[in-house]
Automatic annotation (TrEMBL):
Protein's organism: Haliscomenobacter hydrossis (strain ATCC 27775 / DSM 1100 / LMG 10767 / O)
Endpoints of the signal sequence: none
Pfam annotation, one family: HATPase_c_4
Protein's recorded name: Transcriptional regulator
Highest rank taxon of the organism: Bacteria
InterPro entries from the UniProt entry: RecG_C_sf, Schlafen_AlbA_2_dom, Schlafen_AlbA_2_dom_sf
Membrane-spanning segments: none
Limits of the Schlafen AlbA-2 domain: 14-128
Amino acid sequence: MDAKELLNLVSGGENSRVQLKENVTNATSVAQEIVAFANSKGGKLIIGVNDKTGDIVGLSFADLQRINNMLTTAANEHVKSAIIIDTETVDVDGKKVIVAHVPEGNDKPHTDKDGLIFIKNGSDKRKVTSKEELSRMLQSSGNLYAEQMLIRESTIKDLDWGLFREFYEKKYQEDIAIEDFQAKVENLTLGAEGKINLAGNLLFGKNPQRLSPNCYIAAIWFQGNDLAGTKYLSSENIGGDLPRMFKDARKFVIGCLRKVQNGKDFNSLGDLEVPEIVINELLINALIHRDYFVHDSIKVFVFDNRIEIKSPGKLPNSLTTEQIKAGLSRRRNHILASYALDLLPYRGAGSGILRALQAWPAIEFHNFPETEQFNVIIHRPANETQI
């Protein structure tokens, strides 16, 4: 980094990726800054700059030696798991500034030496205390998966034996006896120790929402285009197992849409204003890839000019909206995705978004890491000739 690049960073002030310090003297506080960056998206700790004014203060030769040693010690000995950071000294008109580059951690959550967890919160940092947030961090590093979590109050009897048997015999072409039910469920990673996990409940549960009350779709057909509006034409909380939720949500959305002639004769059935494949792919995407550690429902809102599908959880593993539009995908729920190949019109090749865009380019994708939400907006065509 040269002086110009540094000054550009400093002129923007502190944010979630840049922290300014005039000087540092405490390895524990430095470690906490490193932890916060590592548990977030990484960032730069710039030392030798007044954090109130942005003025370059500079560091003495002794400070440079001391702070570089402190940064190394903090990252290696005061952060668990240790973080490898890069440091450099930048000369700005004869004044020396240290820039410590902290990468995003790959073994979250990182802690300080006392076991405290910090993340960035705008230009500041905050302590992580909620179990839900901690679970999401473990999930992001591949150390914990929501779909594999056993449901403490469940038993094997919470699964629909008939539904499971039908699936098993069709897929594996062999009969199954009820005496083998629990063993088969556990072999197929749908439960353990006589209990079922979230995936088992959502795929084959008798009453999935009893054990997983946030796993449903809240569907509303609004009158007009305003989310704050008080008038709606239809509203439904859609539950059941994943195939049932997909089927009923699809039926709800299609029931809200118009059919248009598209040049066909008067007696034809007409075409749905938004292709069905778009509805199918984006509903399946929400059900399979949402973050089940976020205790909220999927929202499907139909307005006069658009359809919105709001999924709990940001895109996984630093995935961006531009990457998913280019066909890149990263699975969050591997078990659900593997079973969806047999239970839903799902291919599992990461091409669902591409198929939706090819059929209907008027789709927007919005990722909100701060609020843990991923939104899809499908724009409806203007109300023209209607069947």
